[in-house]
Amino acid sequence: MREIKSYLSQDLIAFEKTFNEAVQSHVSLLDKIMKYIVKTKGKQLRPMFVILSAKLCGPVNERTYRAASLIELLHTATLVHDDVVDDANKRRSFFSINALWKNKIAVLVGDYLLSKGLLLSLNNKDFKILEILATAVKEMSEGELLQIEKARKLDITEEIYFEIIHGKTASLISSACGAGTFSSTDDEAKSDIMKQFGQKVGIAFQIKDDLFDYGKADVGKPTGNDIKEKKMTLPLIYTLNKCSKEVKNKIIQIFKNPNKKKSEVSYVIQTVIEHGGIAYAETKMLGFIDEAFELLNKFPDNEAKVHLKNLVNYSVERKY
């Protein structure tokens, strides 16, 4: 990651400038919250995907930095809203916006970030990039709602799981790669290939995130949290298809219990490990990465391509 950030150092400075200018407000409370958001931003993987995708195909320009800022604004808006929905008090080891300023303000802040992203594109006539990102927001909402619907019935198949994460996570990384490519080429065919690339990477990224729930590392969220929230992820779906009827019924009863004991969560985790759920999910994840690299190999070799591959590898090898 250090090498990638070094390669993108000047581009990231330009992106930060565009992003910081985009979130400024004359309302003092909003400006205070925006400064807090800037200070607590994450690893900026999605803006890096935007910039590297642009560099893969052509020269980076102001439109690229606006696309990266739009991605970050929309992503941050969804995280702020997610924390309200999930009643989460922490985000990346920092207090969430709703924890510090309460839900009403957090919802309005999310709306503000979304509107600033839309205006950033509209004011600069980046219509195609806005279309790519607006589609991603729609798919993210659909993915989240589909997950909620299926969690109530506990009937998620592997096919539905991939439909959910295509919307929830992969759509934003897909749009980052597609928007970045279009920003430097105006070539919709190349942009579409890179959207497919980003979709494969995004699915692998979410599988990696799901696997953290079965580990012991400090990943910024409690281990077993997906189980407590009745989220049926790939390791568990595989296990339910492989275990005995007795074990399956026990796991389903645990999931239905709104107040799960620590011992019950541990039982689910151990059962998944013993039935090969972790190994299966890891194999699937690596398969999506191979497919992503096949798409990337349609483009000529250059330095950006090398760093894109390194960023993809980082996203599935990360420890948090």
Keyword list:
320 residues, mainly alpha, Farnesyl Diphosphate Synthase, two-stranded antiparallel ribbon, globular
Task: Give a brief description.
The chain is globular and about 60 Å long.
Topology (elements, then pairings):
Elements (H helix, E strand, L loop, with lengths): L1 H6 L1 H15 L4 H12 L5 H13 L4 H25 L3 E2 L2 E2 L1 H27 L3 H27 L4 H28 L2 H25 L12 H4 L5 H9 L2 H12 L5 H13 L2 H20 L6 H15 L3
Could you describe the largest sheet, including whether it forms a barrel?
2 strands, antiparallel
Q: What is the number of E strands?
A: 2
Strand content: under 5%
Overall average residue pLDDT: 89
Total number of helices: 15
The CATH superfamily name is: Farnesyl Diphosphate Synthase
CATH topology tier name: Farnesyl Diphosphate Synthase
CATH top level class name: Mainly Alpha
Give the % helix. Answer: over 70%
The general outline is: globular
**What is the ordering of alpha helices and beta strands?**
HHHHHEEHHHHHHHHHH
Q: Look at the helices and sheets and give the structural class.
A: mainly alpha
Low-confidence stretches: 216-222
Oligomer: single chain
Distance between the termini: 13 Å
In CATH, the architecture is Orthogonal Bundle
Radius of gyration: 20 Å
Strand arrangement across the biggest beta sheet = 1-2
